[in-house]
Design goal:
single chain, 0% strand, globular, Zn2Cys6_DnaBD, Zn(2)-C6 fungal-type domain-containing protein, Carb_Metab_Trans_Reg
């Protein structure tokens, strides 16, 4: 067969060129038979259509994207060609040169020398193709102070990472680097923007203060001293906080802290460890913290004489939140993150600062995490220890959110994710796995707390929504509350509350649990009375209401007033007892709200019994300095109710005889 000719003969017939197709043929996706855009195609001629080329004109007018040159092209040749195509004036060219230091460096770089090897030339061509030199030069121009070489920090083992966490938490100055993985830069940025939501930040004062001698001494003592202090803070946490509501296992926690590399449970999550250390520091009596508290308190002005604070403790609380944010505790639903969020709610103590804006965001996030953990498809593969830990967290969260919702008027939707599953202590399940609940001596107290949380959640769901604030509280809601609350009193208060005579054998844990049970019962009467005072009773002021209805409404209102007065007096008496024993400085934000409500109730009536509550809150201000402001509020209301006569009253603790007399006169109500 003859070979093909070197050049093909021209084709005279119509050719299919997609770039000259008219709009009509392009829309119909048919072949357009025309040679250029000035002609009319056969389709448009046959159907007497207008043969337009709008699409082609738009493509021609569209600006072209810059073309990536091949690695073999000479940049200087391309630049010269570009200058010939568009020759700008001198000013524009100078501005362009000033604005493009990368191009300047590339213009002066020149081609590779002839002595380069093939490998070097290939490497240079690859870097030119990827634009590595341009990118690095641009970074150096945008941030001249940045180092020219970027290296990744070596990955540290669990022991080294935990040591870095200790360095960050106990650093006497702000950490402005990321060598320890954590930094104070974001906290400083928030302070600079005026977005402080923690009392410990004091609008940036804590960062402006110089470190105390005690804090500097701790840092100079080295890592061994910091680890010893951390162990003491962990012991303080489990002795004071975890004993009130068991959330963590002490033995497992301490073992994982001291042996992060070898413990079967692995190292502790940094957010949980940081929160535990910050919480324990509030109540620890370590020499470093005590000296730091004395030196820091001496710096405060005369207007806050008597209030104490520790800069070291403040920094621990701030940095614990920073570690939690870096650890994504709000994003990842795990049991450890749920425990961290529960503890952070009490650690940060935002309710006195935010007041009506307080929404318990940490508890709400913890409830969402727990609901996802409970719905995990791997539930049946977990061991008994994990299930016991998860049930312990569920019970603690159910109790805390129940009382928080009714005390702070939180909508029930905030904690809708929490499901009231019967705890292990109620059903006895899990005994085969050695559950600590079935063998605990605190089963009765936990059962009473859970039953009280049920009453609180129902009362919160019935009261805190817009319909009640607009129309008043239905009488049926108040009837149900009185019945359920009285039933709880008959079942638990006589056994678990404070008896007539204070037992001499009670230690801190026994005393604080009995007082908490007693105080929480009486606080609900104050909550109900305040709700009636704010919203009224539905139908109580309606003239068309039946006579018996009005009578029942009047009786209910008087009943609540009587119970509220009695409850406020009882809370004041128990606060005086705790004040005398010094237990209020060891309370982890459990009793402050009932004390504040009772103090305000008595102060509005000008009753001197509110003095004990003011004194109690000022002792409370040891671990939580913001409680000092609440004591000042009660004091101001009392002075206003008394007509402003006299000066501020003395705030010494009541004597033992006075406490006994008041306590005997305000025993729990037996009204049905």
């Amino acid at each position: 067969m003859d070979p093909p000719p070197a050049t093909m003969p021209p084709f005279n017939g119509p050719t299919r060129k997609q770039n000259v197709a008219c709009d009509a043929c392009r829309a119909k996706k048919v072949r357009c038979l025309r040679a250029n855009t000035t002609e009319r195609c056969e389709q448009c001629v046959a159907k007497e259509l207008e043969c337009t080329s709008n699409y082609i004109e738009q493509l021609q007018n569209k600006p072209r994207r810059p073309r990536r040159f091949k690695s073999g092209d000479d940049f200087r040749t391309r630049s010269a060609a570009g200058e010939k195509r568009s020759a700008p004036d001198d000013d524009n060219s100078q501005g362009s040169q000033r604005a493009s230091p990368v191009l300047q460096s590339r213009r002066t770089s020149g081609p590779p020398a002839e002595s380069e090897t093939n490998t070097t030339s290939s490497t240079r061509n690859t870097r030119d193709m990827l634009g590595v030199d341009d990118a690095m030069a641009m970074l150096a121009w945008m941030n001249p102070s940045a180092p020219s070489v970027y290296s990744r920090s070596p990955i540290k083992d669990a022991g080294g990472a935990q040591a870095d966490l200790m360095r960050y938490l106990f650093s006497p100055t702000a950490a402005l680097h990321h060598e320890w993985r954590y930094s104070d830069l974001s906290s400083l940025e928030m302070v600079r923007g005026g977005n402080c939501d923690m009392w410990e930040e004091q609008n940036g004062v804590v960062w402006d203060e110089a470190p105390t001698a005690a804090h500097l001494g701790l840092w100079a003592a080295g890592e061994a001293e910091m680890e010893s202090l951390a162990i003491e803070l962990i012991d303080s946490f489990f002795a004071i906080i975890n004993s009130r509501l068991p959330l963590l296992d002490p033995q497992s926690f301490m073992s994982r802290f001291t042996s992060p590399m070898t413990d079967p449970g692995g190292p502790l999550p940094h957010p949980l460890l940081a929160v535990v250390l910050a919480f324990g520091a509030k109540f620890a009596e370590n020499a470093h913290i005590t000296s730091d508290r004395d030196e820091t308190s001496a710096r405060d002005p005369e207007g806050v004489t008597g209030r104490t604070r520790s800069r070291m403790v403040q920094l621990l609380a701030i940095r614990a939140r920073e570690v939690a944010e870096v650890g994504k505790v709000w994003r990842v639903p795990t049991v450890a993150n749920t425990q961290t969020l529960i503890l952070m709610e009490s650690l940060m103590c935002q309710a006195p600062l935010l007041k009506r804006k307080y929404q318990a965001c940490h508890l709400a996030a913890a409830s969402r995490h727990l609901s996802q953990v409970m719905d995990s498809p791997l539930d049946h593969t977990f061991n008994y220890a994990y299930k016991d830990e998860r049930m312990r967290v569920q019970l603690a969260l159910f109790i805390i959110t129940g009382f928080e919702s009714v005390f702070h008027r939180l909508r029930s939707e905030v904690f809708d994710y929490i499901v009231d599953l019967t705890p292990l202590i109620m059903s006895g399940e899990g005994a085969a796995g050695g559950s600590s609940y079935t063998a605990s001596d605190d089963d009765a107290w936990l059962t009473a707390a859970r039953a009280g949380a049920v009453v609180c959640r129902k009362l919160s769901a019935d009261l805190w929504h817009p319909r009640i604030s607009a129309n008043g509280i239905p009488l049926s809601v108040l009837r149900d509350f009185v019945h359920e609350h009285s039933s709880w009193r008959d079942a638990y208060l006589a056994r678990l509350g404070v008896p007539l005579q204070w037992p001499d054998s009670w230690d801190f844990v026994a005393a604080i649990k009995a007082c908490s049970t007693d105080i929480f019962y009486h606080e609900l009467w104050l909550v109900a009375e305040r709700a009636v005072r704010d919203f009224g009773i539905q139908g109580g002021s309606d003239e068309s209401s039946h006579g018996m209805m009005n009578l029942e409404v009047s009786q209910m209102r008087e009943r609540l007033k009587h119970e509220a007065l009695h409850s406020a007096m009882r809370i004041a008496a128990l606060s005086a007892v705790l004040l005398e024993h010094g237990y209020l400085r060891l309370d982890p934000l459990v009793l402050y709200r009932p004390m504040y409500d009772a103090g305000m109730f008595l102060a509005r009536q000008g009753r001197e019994e509110s003095r004990a509550l003011v004194a109690g809150l000022r002792q409370y201000a040891g671990p939580y300095p913001q409680m000092w402001d609440l004591a000042l509020e009660i004091e101001a209301v009392l002075l206003e109710s008394a007509g402003g006569a006299g000066s501020a009253f003395p705030l010494q603790a009541a004597s033992a005889q006075e406490v006994t007399n008041v306590l005997n006169g305000h025993q729990p109500s037996v009204l049905v």
